[in-house]
Each structure stands twice: as C-alpha cells, then as structure tokens.
TrEMBL record:
The keyword Signal applies. Residues 1-22 form the signal peptide. It comes from Aliirhizobium smilacinae. It holds the Pfam family SLT_2. The keyword Ligase does not apply. Transmembrane segments: none annotated. One of its GO terms (biological process) is peptidoglycan catabolic process. GO terms for molecular function: peptidoglycan lytic transglycosylase activity. SUPFAM superfamilies: Lysozyme-like (SSF53955). This is Lytic transglycosylase. Keywords: Signal. It comes from the Bacteria. Residues 32-236 form the Transglycosylase SLT domain. The lineage of its organism: Bacteria, Pseudomonadati, Pseudomonadota, Alphaproteobacteria, Hyphomicrobiales.
Amino acid sequence: MKKILLAGLVLTGLAAATPAAAQQCGNDSSGFDRWVQDFKRVAPANGISPAVVDRAFANVSYNRPTITADRGQKSFKLSFEEFLKKRGATTIISQGKKMKSANASLFDRIERRYGVPAGPVIAIWGMETGFGRFLGNQHTLSAVATLAYDCRRSDFFTEQLYAALKLVARGDLSTTAKGAAHGEIGQTQFLPLNVIRFGADGDGDGHIDMVGSRADALASTANFLKGHGWVSGAGYQPGEPSFVAIQGWNAATVYQRAIAYMGAEIDGR
C-alpha cells in the first residue's frame, strides 16, 4: 500500500521509553540480526512472553521491499484529479455502490453503532485493498520489525512491533500473515497499534480478524473514524465537522479529499 502512515497514533503503556526503543538502529541490513537478538532479550520485560517472541520471530528477516516502499511514496504529490485517476476513483465509486447494496444490513448495523455512514467506510475499503482483493504480499512481522530497526522512525515502529506481538499473543495475527509494505493488516490496512486501539469484533466470534472477516474490518474502520472525531449525522466534506476524522486516517490532503469525495458519491450525497 503506497500511503502516508496514519496520523495521530500514540501508544500508552506499551513500548514507549523502553530499553527496546533505545536499541541500536541501522540504515541497512548489516545490523538487523543483532538488533533482533537484542529486541528478543528485552521484549519479555515489556509484557511479551518468551514463547510468543520466539514464535513471532521464527520467520522474521530484513525486508528490503519495505524499505524501498518507505522511501518512495510519490503518489501524494499528484493533483487531486490526477490522484483520483491513478487510484481508480470511478471504479471504486461504481463497485462501492454495489457493495453498499449487497451488504446493506451490515452497513446499517455499523452506522447505528458508530454513527458513520457506509460511503466513507466503503471508500477507504476500496482505496486500500480493492474491497479486500489486494491485501499485500509482504510478511507483516518482518515489515514491522524492519521499520522498528530502521533509524528513520524506529521509536514509532517499535511501538507497532509491540502491538503486533500482542495481536499474536491473543490469536488475532498469524505469524505467517502477509500484508502491505509497512505492516498494515487486513482489508482496510490497519497498522498493528490501530488494531489494538480500534479493532472491533463486527461478526461476534470473539476475535478481531482484519483479514478474513469483512464485518470486523469494516466495523473497525468505522470505530477508528469515531475515535478520531466523527460526529454522527454531520457532514464529512472539507470544512464540515466529520472531515477531521478522515484527516486522522491519512496525513495526505489529497488522500483525505479522495475519501470524502468518493464516500459522498457512494452515499448519493
């Protein structure tokens, strides 16, 4: 997924100011294995059992595609019209209307619970993964660990790595899971910490499955928007009250405007 990372992510009580955050970062693969061993030593002191750490890191390796993607986010420099064309807005709107109709009862439940209408949730779903068809092909734990080691945003992704390990521990993330290049998970591409903070059990099975459960992914997306200031019944175009929640989803203005525009078209507003 080529997107600027979600704004407004603050972790309380996980990995902030821990010894793991102070480990030696690096800008190439040469120190990654040593960093992993250091991390595995301190992780149990930060609430992750040794068994979970060993299981989670069994297949972790330095992920070069993640670094390439992290250095090459260029689509956000396009004009609004160029961005809509590049992201296939016409197709997303057309298919999104069909998705809304086909899943009417689900979207009705979501709106009743979170106050968020179908349009913006569907726009996000379509933009992020083509309605669940393109979830990404990068090993999630490797992607997050690589960015935790990388010096550019080591503290931020160390928090994400601890969140991912918590998901592994509670059975909501497979150690073999694949997703987008920055470790985003599932049908609407949540970073691990967002799953911890805003993940919702939309299908009532006791787990939050962002990959396999459409209901979980969409309910979690609505919960994220509610948690970032969505006002039930209010408008969500630029300058309207609920647009602030869309700004919380992505830091790029062009991306925010695209969600608002496509959401309104899908909602028929």
